[in-house]
Amino acid sequence: MQQVNSSIDINAPASLVWAILTDFESYQRWNPYIGAILGKPNTGSALSIALRGQRRGVTCMSSLLTQVREPRELRWRRRRFAPGVFTTEHRFRIETLPAGGVRFHQSEQIKGVFAALFGQRSRRAMEEGFHAMNHALKARAERMHDGHVATGNSVS
Length: 156
What we know:
By secondary structure, this protein is α+β, with helices and mostly antiparallel strands.
């Protein structure tokens, strides 16, 4: 088994970060790593995900949304070949911080007999993609939150 993790602190409420994260239709406008997701943010939904890679271009994959816990967690799983051969689980988790804001966690767990073939270059590319997405999510959420605060609108 292998795991790739990335997290970032965001000065915005969990509900706003969740709204951005589950607005799959907007990904193409702001997300440098996941260029598009077709599907609905509902447990059991089939997703078609287009990943943007700096070295490989766009990679499309099919996944199953396995968990949706608003506004805290979103997970999908992709299985290639037969069960136990190569399975990935992608997870987004939003943790509310005591001082305000949230910590956004993104991870992917790679399991199965082919997991050992997931090399350092692939791992580095995935980490770079996670970091790029996390920073773009932070910028978007904080910009939207600051706009709501400046206009006096409440964001729950």
